[in-house]
Amino acid sequence: MEEITDLIMDNKRLIYSIANNFKNYKSKEDLFQAGCLGLINAYKKYDPSMNCKFTTYVYPYILGEMRKLVRQDKGLKISREITKLNLKIEKAYVLLTQKLMKEPTITEVADYLNVPEFYVSEAINSLNKIKSIDEPINSDGKEFTLQDVVGKMDNIDDLIMLKESLKTLNKEEMELISNRYIKDYTQTQTSKIIGMSQVQVSRKEQKVLQKLKQKMVA
């Protein structure tokens, strides 16, 4: 146990430096814990005779555990093919890091997996898209995230498009959406807050939703 504690303390700065790649993730400590798990797993497999620096060897293990945490925590569905490819990419990072004694490039990973470089980039970017969903959207001085609005939507590309579409709403439209879909008020409650009749709120809401839909398919 003392050996593991010393291992973590000796590599604490490395783990936190990798965690900084996930700038929008809510908890650096959760990332640190995931990184520690990756560090321990790598330590058990590391062989000094491989002629590879320990910090170079453990890097993809730490990064892989952090990426896994982000994927699981978001609760968003990524296509099965992309998920499988990301797993292959993580394994390729481990093997190529050992072989090349450095972090591999996207081109090197693509060549190793014998897949187009574009596919590797898209798979990696899918994780970045998940992070962007947690970026705050501003409405009249208040912040909320896209997940607050459409937590049940499971298509990442649709979520990103919806986020961009929400930015096109004016103050009145955003207030209506905020009351109906974030605060979960009824149309009657919303009508009292924004000074419209329930019928007007209903019509306005349909227009706003149609506007968003048109923006998303444009």
Short description:
With 218 residues, the protein is mostly helical. Helices cover 72% and strands 4% of the residues. Helix 6 packs across helix 7 (117-132).
Describe the protein:
With 218 residues, the protein is mostly helical. About 8% of the residues have low confidence. The protein folds into two domains: 131 residues, no CATH class; 82 residues, Arc Repressor Mutant, subunit A (Orthogonal Bundle). The chain has a two-stranded antiparallel ribbon. It contains twelve helices and two strands. Helix content is 72%, strand content 4%.
Shape: elongated
Main sheet properties? 2 strands, antiparallel
Residues in helices, as a percent range: over 70%
Tell me the strand order in the biggest sheet: 1-2
Q: What is the count of DSSP helices, taking H or I runs of 4+ residues? A: 12
Oligomer: single chain
Low-confidence stretches: 129-134, 146-156
Count all strands and give the number: 2
How are helices and strands ordered from N to C?
Answer: HHHHHHHEEHHHHH
Tell me what portion of residues adopts beta-strand conformation. Answer: under 5%
Number of domains: 2
The overall pLDDT average reads: 76
First and last CA, distance: 58 Å
Tell me the structural class.
Answer: mainly alpha
